[in-house]
Amino acid sequence: MDKDRKEALQVAKELTAKFIETRTVSPGNFAEVFPSVYRVVCTAIGVDADQDNKGK
User: Fold this and answer.
1) Residues 20 and 27: beta-carbon distance below 8 Å
2) What is the DSSP letter of 54?
3) What integer is the mean pLDDT of 31-47?
4) How far apart, in whole angstroms, are the C-alpha atoms of residue 8 and residue 4?
5) Which DSSP letter does residue 25 get?
6) Secondary structure (DSSP) of 7-44
7) d(CA 29, CA 7)
8) I need a labelling partner for 23 at 20 to 30 A (CA). Which of 13, 29, 42, 54 fits?
9) Residue 53 — pLDDT band, cuts 50, 70, 90?
10) Is the pLDDT of residue 38 over 70?
């Protein structure tokens, strides 16, 4: 994973944690929400989020 993807992952984690704190997202639906947040962050910084799943 390159630097941009690592940073996108960190930002997505922080955003999702903030959503949980503000009760916009519950810990129970974290698995549903996190991939969407990650894709939006990657799109915003110009990184292909789908490339992370290639080769697995």
Assistant:
1) yes
2) T
3) 94
4) 6
5) S
6) HHHHHHHHHHHHHHHTTSS-GGGHHHHHHHHHHHHHHH
7) 23
8) 42
9) low
10) yes
